[in-house]
# Entry
Amino acid sequence: MSFEYVSVEEAIAKPGLRMVVVGGIPSPWSEAAKGIFAIKNIGWTATRLVYDDPSLRKWIGGLNAPAVFLNDDRPRTGWAQILLLAERLAPEPSLIPSDAGERALMMGLCHELLGEGGLCWSRRLHAAHAGLSGEGGFSPKVSGYLAKKYGGQSQDADGAQARVLDLLGMFAARLEASSGDYLLGDTMTAADVHLACSVGLFAPLPAEQCAMLPPYREAYEWLNDATKAALKPVLLKHRDRMYERHLELPLSL
# Structure
């Protein structure tokens, strides 16, 4: 399902489903929401996050993306809110298991990918600290912004690196032990969408599929030795399988 980009003013004025997304980079949070809408064939209108637009800040209630709006409903900014809205708008194909135990497991896996303290949160924090320390990662300007917004003390960065390694290991082990091609066996769920988009924060798709801003590609591709070792081939194979079978290419950033 394709979507169109419009100005902030047009998005605010339009009825229906709209989403504010990060532009120019494959933000895992924005790309996961796009992917879920695509799988469910839900049409929507996109506008890019503009940091100095007061009308956008007022509309969202802050400066966060993705932010999803359905008509005059409140903005939905969390991965779970967006997923549950998509399930309501298009129940099939469902991306949430019907079994209560598997549902709880899947939601937990999603949190460990996109939630506070999860894989992407921790990767972002670690890369910001590296940028402030001149060791790679994001540029000093971007690193300073991220550190101020999400925390960036050295002890936080050390903990973030440990979380990255632990979570990469856990997801790789789960895929290796799976009875099928997905995290929960033969059935693709939202956790698989979230994992595929999260891996892009460590290994973005090639330029012809993901035309992201070059400075951010360099930051995304930055890996220290420990992270490089933890990024197992099974994680990259799962990402490629998800884009081949379920997610749209090239990315529209």
